[in-house]
Amino acid sequence: MTSSENQDDVEVMACTNGPLLVRGQIDLRSADGEPIEQSRKTVALCRCGVSAIKPFCDGTHKLINFKA
């Protein structure tokens, strides 16, 4: 499978005042470039910056009343 075929299968949706929902396989890496395993078909990525499990969302945006 080519990288363009992978990209065609990826969908990113910004949830209102919440995370980015990513459906499909992506190349997810840490700040220092290390690969982060994606074990689910859909992942929620933190946008508020307060999640304890960054880059993934843990729902903290609701507690801090995050507004996008």
Describe this structure in words.
The structure is a single chain. This protein is α+β, with helices and mostly antiparallel strands and 68 residues long. A hairpin with a 5-residue loop joins strand 1 and strand 2. The chain is globular. The N terminus is likely disordered.
Set out the fold topology.
Elements: H1 3-8, E1 11-14, E2 20-23, E3 42-45, H2 60-63
Antiparallel strand pairs: 1-2, 2-3
Question: Which terms summarize this structure?
Answer:
68 residues; 15% helix; alpha+beta; three-stranded antiparallel sheet
User: Main sheet: which strands, in order across?
Assistant: 1-2-3
Count of alpha/pi helices:
2
Fraction of helical residues? 10-25%
| Low-pLDDT windows of residues | 1-5
Shape: globular
Characterize the main sheet.
3 strands, antiparallel
Secondary-structure-derived class: alpha+beta
The sequence of SSEs as H and E is HEEEH
Summarize model confidence as the mean pLDDT: 90
Q: For the CA atoms, what is the radius of gyration?
A: 13 Å
Strand content: 15-25%
Oligomer description? single chain
Number of strands: 3
Gap between N and C termini: 35 Å
